[in-house]
Amino acid sequence: MNPEPIAGMPTRRRFLAGAAVLGAGLGAGFVLAACGGDDDDDAGSGTTTDAATGTTAAGANTTVPGEVSSGDAEIAVLAAGLEALAVGTYQAALDAAGAGALGEVPPAVAEFVTVALAHHQAHLDAWNDVLTGAGAEAVTEPNGILKPAVDAEFAKVTDVTGAAALALTLEQAAAATYLEAQRTLTNKDAILLAGSIQIVDAQHVSILLYVLGEYPVPDVFAKTELAVAA
Amino acid sequence: MHLLGRRKHPVDEHALGLLIEESQDLHTDAMVLARSTVPDLADLAADRRLSPSPADPLAIEDFKKSRQSLAGQLGVALGGVLGLGLVHSMFADSAAAADGDLDVMQLQTAVSLELLAVATYEAALTLPFIADGNPVIVTFAETTMSQHNEHRQAFSAQTETLGGTDQTATNPKYTPVVEEAKATLAAPLDVVNLAATLEQVATETYLANLNRFTDVTARVLMASVMGVECQHLATLRAVGALLEGGAPELIAIPLGAGVAQLPAAAGSVAFPEPFSGVTMASPPEEGAVE
After folding, report:
1. Which of A64, A132, A157, B103 is the most buried (most CB within 10 A)?
2. H/E stretch holding B35
3. Among B281, B284, B283, B225, which residue's Cα sits nearest to residue B105?
4. Mutate to test the interface with B, among A94, A114, A207, A209 (most CBs of B within 10 A)
């Protein structure tokens, strides 16, 4: 399925510039040491330790200790904003479904929305751990540039198919953004965190494609065309 | 897909054909983009060949730590200081070799996994209960096999671009596992479970590799392939759950009104955790050229 950008969604070329704008509030010279320090000492509860590097893999409770560069922090802000947007959108879908505004909701779709919402909340928490661990403020608001466009699209949704299509676009954009981030992230654990979330978001995409009647693995290589673009 | 013509299960062949064609078009675009980077990669490869220490020092140090840890365990197993010294010496020599470059080793291991995946799907397609079974599963196996072959080619090209030797053998750890499993494959669910295992190994291996790469192009390539293998895994998990739940008729594209019949679990079985782990990841040296 060719992803249709949400009206107003910035292009990939604006990714870094947009991220820089979002990250501007973090201040110049933002190279901070996070709360941990030693990459080898972070095998806390719920985490998985990479046997080769000793760094923390993305487990149920993901933390990103160590140095966080300004570029990484900008990506963390961007990612958290996207996750907050996803949380808000899925919550709106649940509310609309509960109010009967989407018609009859199949059990699998209801389950998907509930689980995806929980996943994105966990992702948001993980990125906020990165930010607060580096001395920055947590992100609590959705990405301000995308939210108006997403809200406008959501206002047009009248059924489950419409909601699923909007969710698909958000998930594709998130997965693409995490892939794009691999070009610039430098913190080893942030690289792993972004990759770990990219996987789950891409899997959300597959199930949404299937529900929408599309082939669930349409691309030979994951793409970055929909990368946000803050 | 001509194979769909003789299937018993409902499928919108035209729509599915369009989807596959669209996917192939997208792939063509992606390959054009990937190939456009080859000249730059060739330059990088030349630089690396000239450099006695091509990898990032921090990455080498990280990998040395893991090697030393492994060497320590082996040394203890050998039961003596002499044994420990020999093991350390062996790994030190290996790391200095051209194919001992960590980036290259990870790419070679990835190739070994892709080769095994291609061989496994190819073998699955010869099984009567797959070849004459659900057309969506047949199309998935054919398409996925093709995608893995493309991944193999991309990893091989990157290996050679970085000055390494292309891996031509299937993964040494999982090849015997697959060979042993082949004898027990008696139903589609068996094949789905075997394929899911390989896809999970590939997904988690590529995830674990990401922060060890010094070559950013290789990292992005592997993340891109990872983003597809994980979708294979998600699809197989969903298909497996439907087979296990006795609802093979819901394995159809498009599913149409069947969406309402999907069990609730179909909405979550494909992604059991909010974060992917790396517990099944293969280490960099597992499929490296020796």
Report:
1. A64
2. helix B13-36
3. B284
4. A207
- Cis, bond preceding B254 (omega within 30 deg of 0): yes
Distance CA A163, CA A157 (A): 6
Amino acid at A84: A
Contact A118 B274 (CB under 8 A): yes
Query: What tokens were used for B77?
Result: 């197993």
Pairwise CA distance, residues A18 & A229, whole Å: 6
Closest chain A residue to the Cα of B17, Cα to Cα: A215
B171-174 — which CB contacts under 8 Å span 24+ positions? B171/B109, B171/B112, B171/B113, B171/B115, B171/B116, B171/B282, B171/B286, B171/B287, B172/B112, B172/B286, B172/B287, B173/B282, B173/B286, B173/B287, B174/B113, B174/B116, B174/B198, B174/B201
Phi first, then psi: give them for residue A56, nearest 5 degrees: -80, 125
A49 DSSP β-pair partners: A56
3-state secondary structure of A68: strand
- For the segment B226-278, what is each residue's pLDDT rounded down to a tens digit? 999 999 999 999 999 999 999 999 999 999 999 999 999 999 999 999 999 99
Beta pairing class for A32-33 and A67-68: antiparallel
Q: How far apart are CA A62 and CA A46, in angstroms?
A: 8
Mention every residue, 6+ apart, whose C-beta is less than 8 A from residue B179: none
The runs of H, that is alpha helices, within chain A are 15-23, 70-98, 107-133, 147-155, 160-181, 188-211
Nearest to B220 among A111, A183, A204 (CB): A183
Q: Which of A55, A61, A49, A53 is nearest to A37 (CA)?
A: A55
List the domains of chain A with CATH numbers: 1-23+69-230 (1.20.1260.10)
Measure the CA–CA gap between A226 and A229, rounded to whole angstroms: 8
B79: alpha, beta or left, given left = phi > 0 and alpha = psi -120 to 50?
left
Helix (H) or strand (E) holding A32: strand A32-33
Q: Which of B230, B232, B242, B261 to mutate to test the interface with A (most CBs of A within 10 A)?
A: B230
Per-residue pLDDT of chain A (230 residues; tens, 9 = 90+): 444 444 434 333 333 333 333 333 222 222 232 222 333 333 222 333 333 333 333 333 344 545 678 899 999 999 999 999 999 999 999 999 999 999 999 999 999 999 999 999 999 999 999 999 999 999 999 999 999 999 999 999 999 999 999 999 999 999 999 999 999 999 999 999 999 999 999 999 999 999 999 999 999 999 999 999 65
Q: Does the interface ipTM go beyond 0.85?
A: no
